[in-house]
Design brief:
The complex is a heterodimer. By secondary structure, chain A is mainly α. Chain A has 2 domains: 59 residues; 231 residues, MetI-like (MetI-like fold). Chain A is built from 12 helices and no strands. Chain A is flat, with a radius of gyration of 27 Å. Chain A starts with a helix and ends with a helix. Chain B is an alpha/beta fold. Chain B has 10 helices and 10 strands. Chain B has a 10-stranded mixed β-sheet, sandwiched between helices. In chain B, helix 3 packs across helix 4 and helix 3 runs parallel beside helix 6. Chain B is globular and about 55 Å long. Classes of the chains: A mainly alpha, B alpha/beta. At the A-B interface, helix 8 and helix 9 of A face helix 2, helix 3 and helix 6 of B.
């Protein structure tokens, strides 16, 4: 047994105690600290923005805000009820347009695009390009199609279509990914009991992917709700209540843009309050997205 | 040429027949010259080393290989004399008659009840769905374990139970043939035995083909055994699978004709 005890002695000779000042451990501590600092730095703008919006917006957070129309420039009081409902209406229009098109497009990409066809690669590339298009370009594009003189003009519908253009790539990409995560086995099982391809997709694959798709849709909605640039060209603004989707409509984002630069304090206060409501709406949709993700099947 | 017909004409009904089948993926020939008759209401086992094409042949029988883009079959496969690959044959109809069970249990992300009811609903089943679900689960010997939680997710079951759920799902659409691709590979020994007992039970009403890597399993359950082997192709750098020998299970394991079969079943390679 001499060899064994000899080995044990050699082992004992090396201490197992932690050596804080070794270069490896020092490097570890420095990098951890650095990463921690960067996290703090990244959180600063987020916290400050939220804090600032809350502080400035909270003092106009009353019932009038939700029920009254904006007052004429210079006068006090009033609310932003038309902008709140307007944002919801415009986003609803864009969702109604972009979700069916986006989800069906993604179904085609993920389920029906063949392995050797390059069409779906082109489509995916196009979708990625679309995702990178600045939002103001989407606005100008819809302005050119639906708004400019000789066309129907500024309307809630035009605003919704412009936002739909922005939502489309997000929805296509997240749905595409969500469908691809669903295991191949499940499709085979469904085909194996005699389902057709579309039955398989609609009754097995899509339900399994729905939580992930919902996450993508809510994130797209949250992004669209905050967009201002495309709406300035399309939905414009209205100081009045909603009067049909073929008329200009007030939205929170455009209201913030319009009122924040006015020289009147009541309008500036309303802009802050509208910012707060917008942030809260986005926050709520993000939370819904998180809850939906938690119920993921795969 | 290997005699692929089992001995002395005791086989009455042939359900599936492959004749001179070559299977290609693109330009790559995966399996060559397979001719085999699958007898009705018997368990036929496909054994052989990895890459010998047994699963490939199995999937050809219910046209599941159609889903692979580059797949191509040369030769003829028939089901009760009908050409499975004739241009007017609907693969969906084929799969309703020839069900499939996979290596990994793959229940749908649905309730236990809906897992079973899925196939019949797709088929437009009109009748007592509750009863059909119960009979299917009873035939898969799963009913007693799940009867109180039919509305729970299929994922809540153990691996062995999930596989029996998949069997119940397969037989709920009343196929004539059930193809099983290593159905016990992912299961523990107890669950494996349960599935094997179930197979012996089911074979009275169904024709079963099982691919297995487990030779004891083949001897335990199969009436007939087909031994597939793989052969290195000169120049192409790949292997091509072929059917080396097909006979009664006892013959394959006790007195095979081929040297390679004897080597494989006695564990000398593979």
């Amino acid at each position: 047994m001499t060899t064994v005890s000899g080995a044990a002695d050699a082992f004992d000779a090396k201490s197992l105690k932690a050596n804080k000042s070794s270069s490896r451990n020092l490097f570890n501590i420095i990098m951890t600290t650095l990463a921690g600092l960067c996290i703090a730095l990244a959180l600063v703008p987020l916290v400050l923005v939220l804090f600032y919006v809350f502080v400035n917006g909270a003092n106009r957070l009353d019932l009038d805000l939700f029920t009254q129309l904006p007052p004429p420039p210079g006068s006090a009081g009033g609310g932003i009820s038309n902008a709140i409902s307007g944002t919801i209406i415009v986003v609803a229009i864009s969702t109604l347009i972009s979700v069916p098109i986006g989800v069906l497009c993604a179904i085609w990409l993920a389920e029906f695009g063949g392995d050797d066809t390059s069409i779906d690669e082109y489509v995916r590339f196009g979708v990625n390009m679309l995702a990178g298009v600045p939002s103001i370009i989407a606005g100008v594009f819809i302005y050119g199609i639906m708004v400019r003189p000789g066309r129907p003009g500024y309307s809630a519908l035009a605003g919704g279509v412009a936002l739909a253009v922005l939502m489309l790539p997000t929805i296509i990409r997240t749905t595409d990914e969500a469908l691809k995560i669903v295991p191949q086995d499940i499709r085979w099982a469904s085909l194996g009991v005699g389902a057709s391809k579309y039955q398989t997709v609609l009754k097995v694959v899509l339900p399994a992917a729905i939580p992930s798709i919902l996450t993508g849709v809510t994130l797209a909605i949250a992004r669209a709700a905050g967009e201002t640039a495309p709406l300035i060209f399309t939905a414009l603004f209205s100081p009045f209540r909603f009067s049909g989707i073929d008329n200009p409509i007030a939205t929170l984002a455009v209201l913030v843009y319009n009122f924040a630069i006015l020289p009147f304090k009541p309008q500036q206060e309303l802009a802050w309050a509208a910012s707060l409501i917008l942030v809260l709406l986005v926050l709520i949709t993000s939370i819904i997205a998180r809850i939906a993700t938690r119920q993921k099947t795969y | 040429m290997v005699d692929t017909m089992p001995m002395n004409g005791t086989m009455t009904d042939v359900v599936l027949r492959a004749k001179d089948c070559d299977i290609y993926y693109g330009a790559y020939k995966a399996v060559r010259d397979v001719s085999i008759d699958i007898p009705k209401n018997k368990i036929t086992a496909f054994i052989g080393p990895s890459g010998c094409g047994k699963s490939t042949v199995l999937r050809c029988f219910n046209r599941l290989n159609d889903l692979i883009e580059s797949f191509r079959l040369k030769g003829q496969m028939t089901y009760h004399g009908q050409d499975l690959y004739a241009s007017d044959v609907d693969p969906v109809e084929v799969r309703r008659r020839i069900g499939m069970l996979f290596q990994k249990p793959n229940p749908f992300p649905k309730t236990i009840y809906d897992n079973i009811a899925y196939g019949p609903r797709i088929k437009g089943f009109k009748g007592d769905l509750d009863e059909l679900v119960e009979t299917s689960l009873r035939r898969a010997v799963l009913w007693d374990e799940v009867k109180d939680k039919l509305q729970e997710s299929g994922f809540s079951l153990s691996g062995g139970q999930q596989q029996r759920l998949c069997i119940a799902r397969t037989i709920a659409v009343e196929p004539e043939v059930v193809l099983m691709d290593e159905p016990c590979a992912a299961l523990d020994p107890i669950s494996t035995l349960k599935i094997e007992e179930l197979m012996k039970e089911l074979v009275q009403n169904y024709t079963i083909i099982i691919v297995t890597h487990n030779m004891q399993q083949a001897t335990r359950v199969a009436d007939y055994t087909a031994f597939y082997n793989a052969q290195v192709v000169e120049g192409a750098g790949g292997k091509v699978g072929y059917l080396a020998e097909f006979n009664h299970t006892e013959t394959i394991f006790s007195d095979p004709e081929q040297e390679s079969t004897r080597d494989y079943v006695t564990g000398r390679f593979g």
